């Protein structure tokens, strides 16, 4: 693996030009996302796969494809196993923010490779790595950045690719319930929604449950939800979970934001046999609470209204700390209004 270079200050034009050049020169490309991929990550990998295929690259995706987000996009071509003998000359990594959450085995695989590494991300600078790191955290999904990249590459996107990109855009923005729909995003949507069916399909996918089990598990654990009304703070603690597919914490926390009483929500999950909690944290539009700052305390990452972290602290300690940090933010924002 090569040393990390600071390339964060690239303009979109410059970054897209460099990325396009690297793609042009490459023959074998490996695509990598984050563990427990969501629809933005899967949409990014799937669309990149098809784009690179159309340019006649030998392209593979590093994943075990077990996560339910793959259900709607998986095809045998994409889910081909990456053998140790596959020596890519280009590795493209997307949507992960923290290198520790990269797809299992990614770092080990990269250590042995001499490939040029590109990271494309819409998460704030955390520990992304690569020879070329392009981050635009003003854009609310990786799929939107990739759409713009593919437009600039003048790729003739297929309906499948356009639907995958739209699905990621709609997923990460809660169909623009979490974030404002800017003119820039709207223009991207219009270009992707060529037949009119892509948006409908993507909107349906981003609201769908892939498996009955996912929905049953969601319903079961959502009953654990409690609320601290003084803070508008929702809380779900899941202990010793068996048979997890990874999306439980985010599906509960994403849905909770549509409960008007809840201004912020923390979902903690400990998988049976593991010693740490995985946490998902969200805040509502009007709360003004920046949950990425709370996640950062635990060395996690994310966005203003959606973030996550891991911690080996006890649930009692995590909850107390999160509440304290929320309270501080509320206090500070009230102070500002009074001034
Ligand atoms: Mn994303």
From TrEMBL:
Where is the DDH domain positioned along the sequence? 28-169
Pfam families in UniProt: DHH
Superkingdom of this protein's organism: Bacteria
Under PANTHER family, the record lists: BIFUNCTIONAL OLIGORIBONUCLEASE AND PAP PHOSPHATASE NRNA, CYCLIC-DI-AMP PHOSPHODIESTERASE GDPP
Question: What is this protein's record name?
Answer: DDH domain-containing protein
